[in-house]
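Objective 1b. Sequence-to-structure analysis of Trichome birefringence-like N-terminal domain-containing protein.
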Amino acid sequence: MKPPLSSSSSSSSVLRKPRHLSPYLFSLLAFIVFVAILYGEDVACVFNQQLQLGSDSPRYFTGPFFGVEKKREKALPFAIGKTDPSCDIFSGRWVYDESRPLYEESDCPYIQPQLTCLEHGRPETNYQHWRWQPNGCDLPRFNATLMLETLRGKRMMFVGDSLNRGQYVSMVCLLHKLIPEDGKSMETFDSLTVFTAKEYNATIEFYWAPFILESNSDNAVIHRVSDRIVRKGSINKHGKHWKGVDIMVFNTYLWWMTGLKMKILRGSFDDEAKDIMELSTEDAYRMAMRSMLRWVRINMDRKKTRVFFTSMSPTHAKSGDWGGVPGRNCYNETRMIEDPNYWGSDSRKSIMEVIGDVFRKSKFPVTFLNITQLSLYRKDAHTSIYKKQWSPLTPEQIANPVSYADCTHWCLPGLQDTWNELLFAKLFYP
């Protein structure tokens, strides 16, 4: 539309009456401008989201030092609801709860003697009664019936080291009482342990692979190797046993913490002359994470399967970290750490940063179970001296229990049941 002429014009000495927009035309133009502004912002918003997310971006979950943002609100397999996006279930506090534990130690025959603390003389049970309470929301109650029905005709597998085996045993203990005695079994085949729920045609499995990749520590029984070597690009050595799994739970951390550079084998362990290079722990760990995610992308169906990764399980071997008596550890500790910002020196933040960097680039949705911070508070929950010992104790050890206290593994029932409550929450309410 041309602008109205002014009341005087240099091109004409004739005065003209100014022209006015009709009320109807003015209203129409105002409406068009309003709609353009309103929908223009919506379109811009949608366009910007598409630029940020992409059509194939996976969904991840945040946590301290993880550095990965949620990227997509798309329904994941097995989900029956969703968690309030404003609630981080991994951030919260421990609340004493008399209704816990979720099962009794004596009622679960599948707990290894290295984790049965009461049987081996632990004098108090307070460590069994703590419940994790997220800030601003509640964890859904663990429903064993729902879990078993979901596993009907399916395989669930935990892959990793002895910490992951503890979480695996916890899951079996949470479920097995719903299954009659003649309807369940547990068998071990080298690195693979299989719990079968016969009526459900379901298995819950554990596969020993402390580095995920092939290593010289892969013997499930004899694996105490000080000079650890990991073979580059060797995930299929173990991965062939994982195919067909519907719910996968990975972990790997503790075995990388040698304090030295990691030895990486290029070639085969069968080679007479071995080509070994050394990498920093972070670079070696990054290599393993990339291999794991590549295997997942190639071998798992994102429309039918779920993959979880459990973050590093902390140790409490240095009492100085929490202001305790120097030279002590978790031995005789029956109270948790109350400092909400506590972070122990044995938990390497640089590893969490590697996970964040690598997982952020993955095209397969991996659900991150950030159990590290909430477990850091629990110096009271370790097996300490209350376990079956690998070898007879010496008189010197007996005189100094701190010297042989296990501040790495956790009593069952206990902390690792909470890990599975978090797994349950993210499986069904991501």
